[in-house]
Design brief:
The protein is built from three helices and 13 strands; from the N terminus they run βαββββαβββαβββββ. The chain is of the alpha+beta class and 196 residues long. The protein has two domains: 102 residues, Alpha-Beta Plaits, CATH 3.30.70.940; 56 residues, SH3 type barrels. A five-stranded antiparallel β-sheet has the order 12-11-10-9-13, with no helix packed on it. Strands 2-5-1-6 form a four-stranded antiparallel β-sheet. Strands 3-4 form a two-stranded antiparallel ribbon. The longest helix is centred in the middle third of the chain and has 13 residues. The protein is globular, with a radius of gyration of 20 Å. The two termini are 39 Å apart. 17% of the residues are buried.
Length: 196
């Protein structure tokens, strides 16, 4: 079944399609074979097998692939084995801003190394897992090449802003437990533990 012919190309937007774990490539191929535009950003990672190291391509957004569609014609995609649902509010898919997809596409095309990374917001509670301040918790106050974290001493009612390396930070939830996303390198023995 081919995708419908659109008279108005402006009715098509990018949407995030949630898929079963490890089915990203199969679903992306099936979406393309049905005549829809798809985008599955990948990155290269080294994996250790019992007898060798192997470089493999993995999804930058595990559990998701992107589709450019008119949301009224999404049913053929949802019937693909491994496709779960479009991300949205209730059953209404919410489009992703074109500049965000364009930025990801440009990053992938650039050939520069890329990898999944925790999404951090200014004001978010974080824990430092590496470096001389390992174990401290604070609030992220600024992001740039390095992060700036505020570490507070409640008893003294004083705070200190410290610049730290990006890979030292783990985002925490309100219950002070690490927020985690499913990323393949989180258990990779070759790669130093990084925030997830």
């Amino acid at each position: 079944m081919n995708a419908p012919n659109f008279d108005n190309i402006g009715s098509r937007h990018w949407y995030a399609l949630r898929v079963k774990s490890n089915c990203e490539k199969l679903v992306a191929t099936a979406v393309r074979n049905k005549g829809f535009e798809e985008f599955l950003p990948l990155y290269r990672s080294c994996r250790r097998w019992s007898d060798r190291l192997k470089s493999v391509e993995l999804p930058l957004f595990p559990g998701y692939t992107f589709c450019r569609i008119d949301p009224d014609f999404r049913l053929p995609i949802l019937t693909i084995p491994g496709a779960l649902n479009f991300i949205g509010i209730g059953k209404v898919p919410v489009p992703i801003d074109d500049p965000e997809i364009a930025a990801i596409q440009n990053a992938v095309r650039s050939g520069l190394p890329a990898e999944p990374w925790a999404y951090l917001n200014v004001g978010q509670l974080v824990r430092l897992d590496d470096g001389p301040l390992a174990g401290l918790e604070g609030i992220l106050i600024e992001t740039r090449k390095q992060y700036r974290v505020v570490v507070s001493v409640s008893l003294l009612q004083r705070s200190v802003a410290v610049e730290i390396e990006r890979n030292w930070v783990t985002p925490l939830g309100a219950d002070r437990r690490p927020l985690s996303i499913q990323v393949p390198w989180a258990t990779d023995p070759l790669v130093k533990n990084r925030p997830v």
